[in-house]
Amino acid sequence: MTTLLTTHQTPTAKTHYTGDTIQGIPVIRDLAIDDLEPGHQHRFFFQGVQMGSGQHWYVPIVVAKGARAGKRVALVAGVHGDEVSPINAVQRILAELDPAQMSGAVVAAIGVSRPAVEYTQSHWPTSQGGGSLIDFNRVWPGDEIGNSAPMRHAGLLWNRLFKSNVDVAIDYHTVSTGGDFTLFIYADLGKPEIRQMAELFPVDQIKHDPGEPGTLEMAFVEAGISALTVEIGSPRIFDSLKIALTVEGSLNVLKHYRVIDGALGRTAKDVGTFVGNAFETVRSTSGGFIELLVDLKTRVTPGQKVALQRNAFGDIVAEYHASVAGEVATIARDALSEPGSRVMQILYDSAGPRPLI
Predict the structure, then answer these.
(1) N or C: the chain end with fewer CB closer than 10 Å?
(2) Residues 233, 235, 240, 244, Cα dihedral to 10°
(3) How far is Cα 256 from Cα 314, in angstroms, rounded to an integer?
(4) What is the DSSP string of 42-55?
(5) Cα angle vertex 14, ends 10, 18, to 5°?
(6) Is residue 228 within 8 Å of 172, Cβ to Cβ?
(7) Is 144 helix (H, G, I), strand (E, B) or coil?
(8) Which neighbouring-strand residues pair with 181?
(9) How far is the C-alpha of 56 from the C-alpha of 59, rounded, in Å?
């Protein structure tokens, strides 16, 4: 019988194998990188929370363990199930690594919100209370004896995979279905190490952001692990250009920490990244069809018309304007918009224009 831990306990520092294999890959319920042979890539299925039927959800894990000691960097994809560019980005990063030439380790967790990934939807579906959807990025660090399956799943991953094996973390996302995003980073720029990490990515925009409670990024940071969130554009597709830039920035981070050797690629300074610390969120005031008058990365000024909305007869029922000077970061790709729906978000600096990095 497996002993459950609360979020305040620490598991034994040992890799525990269940004795099972899935498609020839061993199943583990605890990871200790020190147990693994250096200079090799190791693949596992991590035994997550049980389903209602008593079977488990399993998370694919890859550990590229270097031949020498060094920083341990986590790459996490699939916290939301419709965010597939992150999965491809992590796969491409792993393909660039040669553990025999590395220091430290890279720990990749791929598709951590298992049922959401299977259904290509943002939130984790549960059967409790007749069925509900839970945002898996609002339950971290979780609790192995928590009051929902997603919370317990997060607790297992946190206690048994991440907490004792990670020094630095990158959490990859996209916007949710129905929208679009620039190549974007959320990072607490007040922390020098995190700022340095963010500036290593050739992204469109960076938001100075202290973090949202319950997110994986904030759980890492509160545990003393430097972390940031990378948003790779659109959901449900592979955005090849943004994926390539994400891989370039991620490899820059690994080079910065001397996990791998090589010259840095492009950085935020090279591409003129726009930096802000706040969003203006424009929301629909009516129902109808949205026509966007600006696109991602458009620079806007106060009073500028950014969208209009028509009813089924083609009459204009609402016009939307920016009230700040900034850059468009997210937009709705779904034309039909209910009242209160997000039309776009504009990244700006509340203290006034900020020079580019």
Answers:
(1) N
(2) 50
(3) 54
(4) EEEEEEEEE-TTS-
(5) 105
(6) no
(7) coil
(8) 330
(9) 10
